[in-house]
From TrEMBL:
Extent of the signal sequence: 1-18
Full protein name: Lipoprotein
Native organism: Archangium lansingense
InterPro entries for this protein: Ig-like_fold (IPR013783), Invasin/intimin_cell_adhesion (IPR008964)
Keywords: Signal
Length: 122
């Protein structure tokens, strides 16, 4: 009897949607994620990261590893909906900047976007 149940389960599993609930539950907070590195690829953990939504004002991104804007951060997150964003990183001394435009789209799980990977120049 157990063997029959297991065989039925194995036969039905491929017909089910491809684990979409698990994909949805793994989605991050915020509309996008940002990393900032130097030209050698090392994380710039003390960068100031901001984002500007289309038609909106500049806002500080928050550190994904803590609940604040952080001085020791490897991943930042920001945005709260679909649309286009300009993401900007500035070095702690304010002399170097990098920016990238990203687009946040609607998906079956809510919202999804590309990650921003910013490289501060030397």
């Amino acid at each position: 009897m157990r063997l029959i149940r297991a065989a039925l389960l194995l036969a039905v599993l491929p017909l089910l949607p491809a684990c979409e609930p698990m994909v949805c539950s793994a989605m991050r907070n915020g509309a996008f994620m940002v990393t900032v590195v130097d030209t050698q690829g090392n994380p710039v953990r003390d960068a100031r990261v901001t984002f500007t939504p289309d038609g909106g004002s500049e806002q500080s991104a928050w550190c994904a590893e803590s609940a604040g804007t952080g001085q020791n951060c490897e991943w930042w997150t920001g945005g709260d909906g679909t649309g286009n964003y300009l993401v900007r990183a500035t070095s702690a001394d304010g002399t170097r900047t990098a920016q990238q435009s990203i687009s946040v789209k609607e998906t079956s799980c809510g919202i999804d976007s590309e990650n921003a990977h910013l490289t501060l120049p030397d």
